[in-house]
Design brief:
This protein has 586 residues and is mainly α.
């Protein structure tokens, strides 16, 4: 594409695009932490349970907009740009926006209609309904934004996507947190003066507490909705100000575009399996929200003594009076651990998005050597970045929880869940790049088929284990682990079969071995310094993480876990490679 000044915009490489998205994702996650950590202190574990009950229902529908639909557009744009069909690209962009807005309107209506039914089948009950309804409009704007994100991703320009995600996170932080605080203050004031909480008249002071937390959670969710609005507006304005980038000479020299009807059909046929796969992957949160709360509430009714023995000191007395409230509280603890766990697959989501146009181009142009090199780079770098993060979460689950969420009663519950989820994050992190590569080689149907099988495993394991008193909420974490282990091996097997390529297990074993040493170092250094210094955890935690990072990099270089081609993709990578080569010669 050309810039308005006439200069040709150079497409970003896979790693450059991934780094742009990862940098944007890092900013988003920091902002998200600045949102969720104070939010937990404002609305507590129960309010977080309500917040995440709504968000879990919204997640599968939202994933259509953020991971399903833009991937379909990106794949078609990348495929056509590889063969110079620029008129098709322009027509795809023009078709995508109205089509995706229509799907967004359908999603908004779906959430609005089914919210009461869903809330009636969760432990949160009617207290979760305001938050659910506050989320519905976000679908419309997220779907609109996805058309722009997919278009620019396909052209290997990751900057608009990264910036729009940062804007979305900032709006969520500023508007969501302030609205939640206002709802708490206003709700308490109204109940004290009028016996009401907004438009609800509670039967007791205890019920008023639940309603105040419910509306505060809805206020936080409203920030999510406004974030999607601002993100869409930014992308629309970006497109408007860069509308002169299309090169008329390139368009006139390209083949005529396929008929609109044919392209629309192609877009829908590409989008449908990708979107279904995206929904299936996010259905894990919905399974946890509905199933976990019901199973926990059932245990609290049938085995109250055993559950109190396990969690008596971790759950405030207010919530023990009602099994549903205690279940929502414990589910809130689980979701706080999930928030940290999701940091790991978020990194490879950026790798997966960036890999799609890169691998699609390699596949469209042919050549086994180029295809294999492209795919191995995606796998190796995904593992290199995410394996140490996941092992580190498990090794330091306790101190990480206490630093992020404080020394509250629930800290040990959250840490126990995070310990298991850290291990689960390893196969989870690889699933997005694998799915992207399967989509890139034309098998957009395989990720969704495998995902439905994986979700079936999660449903069965979570249902059975979360009904066991000694396991309860940990059952959902174990379900996640088994689900994504199945997905990891099945996706890898299918990728090898479809491409006719074989990939060495050392792609994953080298980062895994280095990551285990990294985790052991982090735990050892943290334990030693915390005993030596006493008191605060932040300094021992930082020292443990820093020491582990150095050990990890050292062992990777010793084992040859980083290839020269990987370094060359980095900014200033040529200089880094030359420095290392000189050191090897010495």
């Amino acid at each position: 594409m050309k810039k308005s000044g006439g200069k040709e915009r150079k497409a970003q490489s896979f790693l450059q695009g991934a780094l742009v998205l990862t940098a944007g994702m890092a900013v988003v996650k920091v902002i998200g932490a600045l949102f969720k950590i104070p939010l937990k202190r404002v609305i507590g574990e129960y309010g977080m349970g309500i917040f995440n009950s709504a968000y879990s229902f919204y997640g599968p529908v939202f994933s259509l907009a953020t991971a399903g639909l833009p991937v379909a557009v990106a794949r078609l744009v990348a495929e056509n740009s590889a063969v110079g069909r620029w008129n098709d690209i322009r027509r795809i962009r023009r078709l995508a926006l109205p089509l995706f807005l229509l799907l967004g309107a359908a999603g908004m209506l779906l959430i609005t209609l089914f919210a009461p039914l869903y809330c009636g089948n969760t432990a949160g009950g009617s207290f979760a309904l305001p938050a659910m309804l506050s989320l519905a409009p976000a679908i419309l704007f997220a779907c609109g934004a996805s058309a722009f994100r997919g278009y620019y991703t396909g052209l290997q320009n990751m900057i608009p996507t990264a910036v729009s995600e940062v804007i979305e996170a900032l709006a969520k932080l500023l508007l969501g947190l302030s609205t939640a605080c206002w709802a708490i203050s206003q709700g308490q004031k109204q109940f004290a003066q009028q016996g009401r909480v907004f438009f609800v008249t509670p039967a007791s002071q205890e019920e008023a507490v639940f309603w105040i937390l419910s509306f505060a959670a809805a206020g936080a969710v409203l920030g999510v909705t406004m974030g999607s609005v601002f993100s869409f507006l930014y992308l629309a304005l970006y497109r408007w100000f860069h509308r002169g980038e299309e090169d008329p000479a390139r368009l006139s020299g390209a083949p005529a575009a396929l008929p609109q009807k044919e392209l629309k059909k192609k877009l829908l046929l590409t989008a449908l399996p990708i979107a279904l796969g995206s929904v299936a992957s996010n259905a894990a949160g919905l399974i946890d929200a509905a199933l976990l709360q019901r199973q926990t509430a059932k245990l609290l009714e049938t085995e109250p003594a055993a559950m109190k023995l396990l969690y008596g000191a971790n759950v405030p007395a207010l919530y023990w009076r009602d099994p549903g409230s205690a279940a929502t509280f414990l589910y809130g603890c689980y979701t706080l651990a999930m928030t940290v766990y999701l940091l790991v697959p978020a990194v490879t989501q950026a790798f997966g998005v960036s890999a799609l146009p890169s691998v699609t181009r390699a596949w469209a142009k042919g050549g086994k050597k180029v295809q294999k090199q492209s795919m191995e780079t995606v796998m190796r770098l995904s593992a290199l970045f995410c394996f140490p993060m996941g092992i580190g979460l498990s090794a330091l689950s306790g101190p990480i929880t206490r630093v992020l969420y404080g020394e509250g009663d629930s800290a040990s519950v959250i840490a126990g869940v995070l310990f298991l989820l850290g291990f689960a994050s390893l196969p989870t992190a690889m699933s997005t790049p694998f799915a992207s590569m399967l989509q890139a080689v034309g098998r957009v149907d395989l990720p969704v088929k495998l995902l439905f099988g994986a979700m079936g495993i999660k449903l069965v394991v979570s249902f059975v284990l979360s009904g066991v008193v000694q396991v309860n909420i940990l059952g959902a974490a174990l379900g996640t682990l088994f689900c994504y282990l199945f997905l990891f091996f099945s996706q890898l097997r299918c990728l090898q079969r479809e491409t006719g390529l074989s990939f060495s297990p050392m792609l994953f074993l080298k980062p895994l071995i280095a990551s285990l040493l990294c985790g052991l170092t982090a735990k050892t250094v943290y334990d030693f310094l915390s005993r030596l210094i006493g008191g605060g955890m932040l300094l021992p935690l930082a020292a443990g993480v820093g020491s582990a990072a150095m050990i990890y990099l050292a062992f990777l270089f010793l084992m040859g876990g980083i290839e020269k081609s990987d370094l060359l993709m980095l900014p200033k990578g040529q200089k880094i490679a030359k420095i290392l080569e000189k050191q090897d010669e010495m």
